[in-house]
Fold this protein.
Amino acid sequence: MSSIKLRAVVALSGLALVCAAHAAQKESAPPKKAAVHAKKAAAAKDPVAADFEKFHEIMEEDSPAELFEAKGAEMWKTKRGPKHVSLEKCNLGLGPGVVKGAYVQMPRYFADAGQMMDAERRIVYCMVKLQGFKEADLAKKPFSKGSYLPDPVALVTYVAGQSRNMKIAVPQKLPQERAAYKLGEEIFNYRAGPWDFSCATCHGEDNKRIRTQNLPNLASKVDAVRAFQGWPGYRMTGGLMHTLQWRMNDCFRQQRFPEPGYASETIADLLTYMGVNANGYLYKGPGIKR
Amino acid sequence: MKTFQASIFGAAALAIAFTAQAQDYRAQAISMMKRDFHAKGIAHMDRLNEDALQLICNRSHNEPPKGIAETLQHDQLATIQYPADGKFLGDWKAGEKLAQNGRGMTWKDGGKPSGGSCYNCHQIGPATTSFGDIGNSLLHFGKIRGYGPDVQKYVYGKIYNAKAYNLCSKMPRFGHSGTLTEKQIKDLVALLLDPNSPVNK
C-alpha cells in the first residue's frame, strides 16, 4: 500500500514525466483502449487534460482509492458508536450484511426507513440505527477536508469497492423507485437562482466542456455512466476522497443554489435519475478524479 | 368504430392524466427541494423560487412558443440599464481579467467582486486555450462583426441580460442578476470590441 501512496505523490509532482515513462512501458496496450484514449485527448484539445487522461489510465489499476477502501473495510467490521456494534448487520438492500453488489443497486427504496436511499444515506441510516450515532453529528462535517476523513466517506468507498466490475442495476421495480426517477428528472431540469442554471445547463448536451473539463451529458444513456463511474473518487486536487454526496453538493454550489441537505431525499432522487440512466454499464469501482 | 372511439377517448384521458401527473412530479420536486435545502452564505433560500422567465423555460423544456418568447424577450430587454454616459467601451485589459475570473454568486463567494466566468463557456482571446464550448467562439468578434455603436450596444445588452435576445439561453443575466457592475460590463465589451484587444488581432 505504501508504494502506491508513494507513487501517487511522485506522480502528482511530476505528472508529465511519469506519464511518459509509463506510456513507453505500456506500448503493448490493447489498440481499443489506445483509440479511446486518443479520441478523448483529441476532444480535450489541451495538453493538461491529455496528460491527465494518460495518468488516469495508468493509475486506474492501483488507484489511491484502495487505501480508503481498506480503511472503510476495517471500520465496517469494527464495533463502534454509543451502542458498540459493527455494521455487519447493516442491510444495504440485499439482506443484512450483504455488501457484495449492493452499491450498483442503489439508490433503492427501503421499506424499513420508508425512504429512497443512496449508498451514503443508507450507511448513515445504519450508523444511526445500529451504532447509535447522531444523524445531526454526521451531517455537521460530511466532506473530506485536509487530513479530515469523515467515517461515511471511508465506508461508502469500501461498499463501492465491493461492486467493482459489476453491472449497474439501479432498481425500478417499486412505485416509489419509479417516482424517485421522475422527481430526480424534475430536479435535474429545474432552472432557478441568480444565474438561471439547472443541472442540465452543463450536463444536458453531448461533448461539451467547461474550460478543459469534459462534461458528461447525464440525460443521455451513453454518457450517464460517467456520473456513476469513478465515484467515490480520489481527487488529485488536494488529494481528497469524495463521494457522490460531495459531488452533488459542489454542483449545486456552482449552480448558485442554496446548500442541499446532506444525505437528503433530493440527492437520493437525483442519484436515482442518473443511476437508472446508467443502468447496464459496468461499474469499475472507486476511481480517481482530476 | 366504437372501439376506435373508445381508444381515442382512452388515449385522450391518458394524455390528460399523464400531464397532470407530470405537473404533480414538478410541484413535488420543488417542494422537496424547498424542504431539503438551506441558506448558506449569500445563497439564500429565495434562490429556489423561479422567476417568470425561469418558469416559462422550465415548463416548456426551454422551448417556449414563439409568441410567448417574443413577449417575454421584450420584457427582458426593458430591464437593461444602459450606461448614462452613452459610452460602452471600457478597458479591455480589465475585461480580460474579468473573463478569466470564474468567481461569483456561490455560497463560498460574497464580499469580493464577481468575475464574468466567460472562458468557462467561450473561446475569447487567442492566448487562452483552456476555454469551454457551451457558448460560441468569440475570437475575432469585432473583426468579424464591426466595431460600430450598434454592435457595442448589442454586446453590452447581451452581457447585461442574455435572455433579452434568446429567452431560454444558457447564459446568465450578468447585469440583471447584479453579478457585474456597469463598469465591469463595459470592460468586457471592450475585450470583444476594442480594435486593440487581442481578440481582434
Observations:
- Residues 1-15 of chain B have pLDDT under 50 and may be disordered.
- The beta strands of chain B are 37-38.
